[in-house]
Design a protein that fits this description.
The protein has 279 residues and is an alpha+beta fold. It has nine helices and seven strands, in the order βααβββαβααββαααα.
Length: 279
């Protein structure tokens, strides 16, 4: 057996055009629709997005992308619609800065906790009352099959009639148990409601599986807004270049198409050297 070779790499270089729903820094950017789920960490977000005071000198009506017309805030608000699969959200955005007030209020308040579900204390139950014995029997059949099958298979072939019969029985029990859980299962959690930094309430919250899987609601109802762009995308998120070390080089920073880097990049140029950031 060949040895398993584990490889690792640094994170991908985030092109901010991926997060801009409207105007892009690079027109017709082939990477703009490449994001297909993952974790997006953004450091020094206030310097990139500015606040009401620091953005006063930004021209809102110019044709090039800026903090007012690029649709960045809308992407953050709508990200879950574009990255939800079977009711699970496959995107997380982490931001940091020295001062929360360095970030504009619209974007800052998105990150403030208004509802917090404590999943550490969740309790799973079945709303079956005295009929709990049915899933209990089904679970015992599945457990017996798992213990017997994997022990038996290790010493003999699994093509015997007995194995076939108990596997068929376990399959029926497994499918029936899954239907039971999806229909009658629910989780009891603690729901904390916040207003700003003040905890105003702490109540019990019941999340019913039946409501989730009955197409009564979805958390990605507006996903078609970006469906065409994503389906026609030439590249995926894995195609982005990765950083070479834990510190970003000048060339790697340029690939971000960041407003903050565009502001300070001329300082790093030699006298008379043309700033080609937007080229």
């Amino acid at each position: 057996i060949p040895p398993v070779i584990y490889t690792s790499s640094y994170s991908k270089i985030l092109d901010f055009d991926i997060l801009r729903l409207s105007k892009k820094v690079v027109s017709n950017n082939e990477l703009a629709s490449c994001f297909d789920g993952g974790v997006i960490p953004i450091t020094e977000i206030g310097k990139e997005r500015l606040n009401q005071l620091t953005s006063q000198l930004v021209n809102k009506k110019i044709d090039v992308a800026n903090q007012f017309n690029d649709g960045f805030n809308n992407f953050v608000k709508m990200a879950r619609h574009f990255n939800t699969i079977r009711h699970r959200c496959f995107i997380k955005i982490f931001m940091d800065d020295q001062r929360a007030m360095s970030l504009n209020a619209d974007l800052r308040e998105i990150n403030e906790v208004t509802l917090y579900i404590d999943r550490k204390e969740k309790e799973f139950n079945l709303a079956l009352g005295p009929y709990w014995i049915i899933p209990w029997i089904q679970q015992r059949i599945i457990s017996f099959w798992e213990q017997y099958y994997y022990r038996f298979r290790a010493v003999r072939s699994d093509g015997t009639l007995f194995i076939y019969l108990i596997s068929a029985l376990a399959g029926v029990a497994s499918r029936s148990l899954e239907r039971t859980i999806n229909t009658f299962g629910y989780e009891k959690m603690r729901l904390q409601i916040f207003q700003g930094e003040k905890n105003t309430d702490n109540v019990a919250y019941f999340l019913a599986n039946k409501k989730i899987y009955s197409q009564r609601y979805v958390t990605d109802a507006l996903s078609d807004l970006q469906e065409k762009q994503y389906s026609e995308a030439v590249f995926g998120f894995a195609d982005l270049d990765s950083y070479k070390t834990v510190r970003a080089s000048q060339s790697e920073l340029a690939k971000q198409h960041s407003y903050f880097y565009a502001d300070i990049e001329p300082i790093n140029n030699s006298p008379g050297e043309e700033d080609d950031f937007f080229n």
